[in-house]
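pinned: reference chain
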Amino acid sequence: MMPFWQLCKHRFPVVVLITFALLLLLPCFTAAQKRGKVTSPLQVTASTSLPHTTSAISEFMPHVSAKAIAYQRTSRWLAITGKIWYLLGLWLFLASGVAAKMQSSVRWTLHGRSDLVVRSLPPSLFQIVAYITAFAITMWIWQLPFDLGFIWLEKHYGFGTQSILGYVWDSVRGIIFQAPAALLYRAGYEMLYRNPLRWWMPTWGLGSAGLLFLFVIQPMWLAPMFNHYSSLPASPIRQAISELARNAGIAHAEILVENTSIRSKHVNAYVTGIGPSARIVINDTTLAALPQDQILAMVGHEIGHYKGRHPMLLLGSSIVGLGMFLWCLALVIDSDWFNYKWGIHSNYDLIMLPAISLAAAIFLFVQAPIESGISRNLERRADDYGLHLVNEPEATARLMAGFAERDLADPDPPMILQFWYGSHPTLHERITTALEYRDRHINAGQSR
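pinned: its structure tokens
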């Protein structure tokens, strides 16, 4: 009988399809969130909630308008078909021969030859930079219809504020910032050349170091390249946020305002940084749209992420995921699924880069339920921390209702989409949690 690892190696597409099918069936065998049942406060009973919560919950339920339903349907259609379109684009890029022709052009331009002698050695850093830049531009053009579709959608429903020129400039910067990844790709080629059997281990180490580096520099160096940050002026809201930070033990954190309104009217806030570089960031749209108690509820939730070390946990899960992907890639890289298809004649071909991108896209799709499940768990913890820190459960409930009424978010999305891509608990569930906290801690204390 063929060992499991050899089965994975030689039957990789079959393994992916079986895994995908099992993940699709998983919600049927679990007590996960079900539409109109556990997560819907409209149907919460006394056996699942405190009496006060059941009787008063309708006061906080968001009204889902026809406009919201139309927005949600269009957004989902663009998101789902956009993912399929992206996978199709990667496959066509390889199958049509464009990837092979682009490789020949890069090698002729930089070395004056593209024969197998060149292919027997790892590509140079300049070749990798040139190839991934051309590849990124090609895929950007391929995805342009859906990017423009999302821009139209956000503008049509009154959320989008970014101009087409601003979108193009953001895209150009995004492509430019992909160039440093060439260093990791070059190291991966070198590890594969020096140790064909265990190349993925040192590559994993280097990739992990790169993820940690990005985690550290993102708030200080990368984010300011896309947005402007300024100190929140002295005001009652700043004083209240400072008090929250002191109570949470991060009094040293900067309190900044991000100019989110140059792109969108959606509201948000976050806490980022490590140690002395901690910063509380509030979107200018949040300050303009929300009352103070809801802003504090939002900030308290984000402080909960910081105090719970959730960014570090997500970084750790990303490192584990990277290791799993590289290990899977090492199993299949010499199989027929990669070799001698799409013009690939060597593991050192530049065409390996889009082939690996296709494999990564499939891997990310298959593991999305795991990532989403971890994220929902961390969001529940942050909700609980924020409720205890701010002690404004009704403001929290109204904040969640506002995401549905103002931002047109679905308070109770379809089960399979929530399972696969839901990074947060449903809004219904979060409203219920806030009101249960109110009855358990506030109303109970007043009745004594």
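why pinned: The chain has two domains: 35-226+308-446, 229-306. The first strand starts at residue 229 and ends at 231.
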